[in-house]
Every structure is written in structure tokens, then in C-alpha cells.
Give the backbone structure.
Amino acid sequence: MSTDTGHSGIVYWRRSVWNGARCEPVLVTLRPDGLQVWDRSLATVLQAGPSAVTGRLTRLGTLVLTVGGRRYALVGRGASLSPAPSADQQRALEGAGSGSSGAAAAGGAVDQLLNGGAAARMRDWHARLAAAGARLR
């Protein structure tokens, strides 16, 4: 029996490749029973069992997930035009308890210096999703 209670964090959903204002923060929670993603108002963006998730991690650190035929491009940090995480998202993250993290995973010096650890954060999510049963490359 697993004692893993899950993992939560805030990453950014890149809804547009070109428009930085459309790169918005989402609260992502991975628990043994599934993956959930909520927007700034805590409306559900995505809810699925890990086995229903496919995807890949790009060389630039974008975690591209596909669920039910819909594509979600998640990145470790937003653009300069991106909105900040909402107070509701921050409270929900704090209330998630054990295993939650808003901080960056440890990464290389270049990633930390130029990207705020965003690529390492997405590699961590990739590993966690794969371990939970998602079909990732």
C-alpha cells in the first residue's frame, strides 16, 4: 500500500504559443486517484486518471499532455505578460498539505539563472506523472 498522498504545484498553461497573456497559472494536483488541473478561479480545466494521460517533455521544458484528444502545454513559469497565480490558487496550494510545492525543483545552473528552474520543475512533473502511470515519452 502506497503512503504517497500526492503532489501539488502551480505551473503555467500555455494556451497560445504567441500570446504571453494567454499563458495562465494553473494549480496541478497529482494524487493516487488522478490528475486535476484548476484555473485561476479554481474551475476544473482537466481531471483524469494518470493512465488516460499521454504526452512528452520537449527539449525546452514544455510538458505537453494529451487527455481525451485535447492538448495541454504546461511550462514551469509564465511570460512577462502572464497573470500571477490567484489568491485562491495560493490558498488551495497551501491547503494541499504534504507533498505540495510552489518552489522550483533543483536544476542546473543555466536553468536556474535563465529560467528560474522552470525546466527542472517540469522534469519533476514528468517523472511524477510517469511513475503514476501516465504514458509519457
